[in-house]
Amino acid sequence: MQDNTKITEMETEGGELDAARAVRADFAARSLVGDKAPGYYIQTLGCQQNEADSERLAGLAELMGYRRVCDPNDARLILVNTCAIREHAEARALSFIGEYKHVREEHPDTVIGVGGCMVTQRHRADKLKMSYPYVNFTFDTGALHKLPFLVKQAIEKGSRRFVISDEYDIVEGLPVSRTSKHSAWLPIMYGCNNFCSYCIVPYVRGRERSRREEDILNEAELLIADGAREITLLGQNVNSYGNGAEDSSNIAELMRKICALDGDFRLRFMTSHPKDASDELLRAVAEEEKIVKHFHLPVQSGSDDVLRRMNRKYTSGHYLGIVEKLRALCPDISLTTDIIVGFPGETEEDFEATLELLRRVRYDMIFSFIYSPRKGTPAAEMEGAVPAEVSKERFARLTTLQDEISRERNERFIGRKVRLLAGEVSKNDSNMLTGRGDMARPVHFAGDASLVGSFVNVKITSCGAYNLEGELI
Ligand code: 5AD
Ligand code: SF4
User: Fold this and answer.
1) Residue 37 · residue 27 · CB < 8 Å
2) Is 238 exposed, middle or buried (0-12, 13-18, 19+ CB in 10 A)?
3) Cα dist from 428 to 5, 425, 434, 444, whole Å
4) Residue-level pLDDT at 158
5) Which of 48, 50, 85 to mutate to test the pocket of ligand 1 (most atoms within 8 A of CB)?
6) Is the dihedral of CA 164, 169, 174, 180 positive or negative?
7) Ligand 2 pocket: which of 117, 200, 208, 273 to mutate (most atoms <8 Å of CB)?
8) Can you give the pTM of this predicted structure?
9) Coil vs helix vs strand at 308
């Protein structure tokens, strides 16, 4: 639990950074520096937490003397950061790992490591060990910091290690190589205690543990100084940030303290569990100017019976009460959610209750998923599997209804002037930029690439269900 959490300072324990420096020194001795430095490539699957973890893996790889490359064929260190949330995510990870076999065949000195949620399950780590002989090592979600040791041993001894450490300490001080200068992930807590009956996360990311407030504030300051214009606080359940820890506050206080830091930036947070969405948090979101007016509040189902079997610990009535409070405090807030269709035993009536909830809440956007049984979770043992055709048909009905609602919600922005963070140049048209603001969907507008990373004012001119369009003012 929280108060037993050991916070490890990177430089003081274990010599992990020494291992990284030793690899670097070895490369330097062989003149493998600068353009000649060996490449590293990280394939990341899954959620933002994994993206944040990959930025730390990249930081460690660079400390070891590797240089980032865009093509795995050019990499002598390939890492796959896996996800286990649904079967499809695991299948994708295995397919990527399969593709890297030929890299090893062509370049026998390539080191291949697999981390993340998939390989934190014993049966998956064992499978990789037995059936993927070219994989050098796996490292579980609590063992990111072991990367330099694992790489060093693989290079020096050709050894294979499949780590399931069960250590879920917080390791502070890992180097971070961020993928975006203006948009930053900031993990504030790790793990989950909720054990929703369908979810693998508590088994692969351990119990809830929060970072010290001081460490988070220091990192936020560094990010802002380094050009971050958007900071997203991350955790499996950020609403329970600080529970039980002496040197942490709660999520609302933490966000207010971050907002009080100097600088022109916006603050986002995810993910929230409805049972822990306190009034204090709702007020902070409504009142703090720097907090983006967007709340992601996963509901999963509109049926109380399904919610009970999902072990969600709230009813649809309680959930609607939170939405009502939030809208009273902040009428224009953008609301998004996660929905699972085809949970075991879900009847047509249960599903209708989900559609009805969508009609009542009128979300700006939903993330919907077909239930995927996860080995070791209670729901995987439940009776009443919903046939795939039924789940697919429900999924399609859900999407049709939500598309209509999303379009209507997006329309409220037409004619408004909005402030956006210009995020990236469009992949299809180099004269178009994509920006993000309070709306759940991205806004496309014509603009010069030099604007990327700065705030711009845009007038919204049109929209569809999936995006909005505007003009620079
Ligand atoms: N099957 C389908 N969707 C799932 N999610 C979590 N576990 C499963 C599962 N076994 C969804 C939930 C969660 C989101 C991140 O993924 O909706 O909120
Ligand atoms: Fe999974 Fe539930 Fe924890 Fe979210 S709150 S990570 S859905 S167990």
Assistant:
1) yes
2) buried
3) 47, 9, 11, 12
4) 86
5) 85
6) positive
7) 273
8) 0.94
9) helix
Q: Is 298 in the pocket of ligand 1 (CB under 6 A)?
A: yes
For ligand 2, whether the C-beta of 202 sits within 6 Å is: yes
The one-letter amino acid code at 228 reads: A
DSSP state letters, 90-127 = HHHHHHHHHHTHHHHHH-TT-EEEEEESGGGSHHHHHH
Q: What percent of the chain has pLDDT over 90?
A: 87
pLDDT, one tens digit per residue, over 324-375 is 999 999 999 999 999 999 999 999 999 999 999 999 999 999 999 999 999 9
Ligand 2 atom having least distance to the Cα of 193: 3
CA distance 271 to 257: 19
What is the atom index within ligand 1 of the atom nearest the CA of 379?
10
211 lines ligand 2 (CB under 6 A): no
Q: In 19-175, which ranges are E strands?
A: 39-44, 67-68, 75-82, 111-116, 137-139, 161-162, 170-172
B/e letters for 166-176, b = 16+ CB within 10 Å, e = fewer, are ebbbbbbebbb
> What is d(CA 253, CA 100) in angstroms, rounded to the nearest whole number?
46
- Separation of CA 34 and ligand 2 centre (Å): 43
Ligand 1 atom nearest the C-alpha of 271 is: 18
Give percent helix, percent strand, percent coil of the chain, each to the nearest 5. 40, 20, 35
H helices within 178-237, ranges in order?
201-205, 213-225
Give me ligand 2 centre to Cα 210, in Å: 16
